[in-house]
Design brief:
Length: 190
């Protein structure tokens, strides 16, 4: 991370070589290295992380998880060096990794990315995603989306709340126990 904060363009190649390693064991600090790399390279570097860590299904869980942490770091501390829409795009790629899905869904809800509502409704019934933590994350995503005020001038959020409420009503009929469990500790920020 420090190299990203004080490094120069000449450090990018070194950092990229370290990131591209197809590691099978946990590499301590790789998330910080990816964050620093993104600070120096912006969207161009994120394209490379997408290819090597997110789209590559053979990438180790620990490497993909570190990349997800780097996205969260950039969202919070990246000083808008990468557009929020671009960070969302990369986070959405990780929905294809069931082992990370609950964390990804929580991030997308926190980032108010409502573009994946239809995809999450599909995943709720998908066999690979039939895990309690994923189902609860999906429900919390829809709970959060149901609170979107219908006042957005662009009109896009007029549909978000309605759609989320409709899916939640369906789930209350088909999977009431999981909905109750997810609602139990759901405390949306105001």
């Amino acid at each position: 991370l420090l190299l990203g904060l004080c490094g120069q363009e000449s450090d990018i190649q070194f950092m990229e070589a370290k990131i591209r390693v197809q590691a099978r064991e946990i590499r301590m600090g790789i998330g910080g290295l990816m964050s620093g790399y993104l600070l120096l390279t912006g969207s161009a570097g994120l394209d490379k992380i997408d290819e090597t860590k997110f789209k590559d299904k053979t990438a180790a869980f620990s490497e993909t998880f570190a990349g997800m942490q780097a996205l969260s770091f950039m969202w919070t501390f990246g000083a808008d060096q990468i557009e929020k829409r671009r960070l969302n795009q990369s986070m959405r790629l990780l929905l294809e990794r069931p082992e990370l899905a609950d964390l990804v869904i929580a991030n997308l809800a926190r980032w108010e990315d409502w573009t994946v509502m239809d995809r999450l409704a599909e995943l709720y019934a998908a066999e690979d995603y039939d895990v309690r933590s994923i189902k609860k994350a999906i429900i919390r995503y829809f709970l959060r989306a149901s609170l979107v005020p219908p006042t957005n001038a662009s009109g896009t959020d007029l549909e978000t709340s309605r759609k989320a409420k409709a899916f939640l009503e369906l789930l209350r009929l088909t999977d009431p126990k999981t909905v109750q469990s997810a609602e139990r500790f759901f405390h949306p920020r105001r």
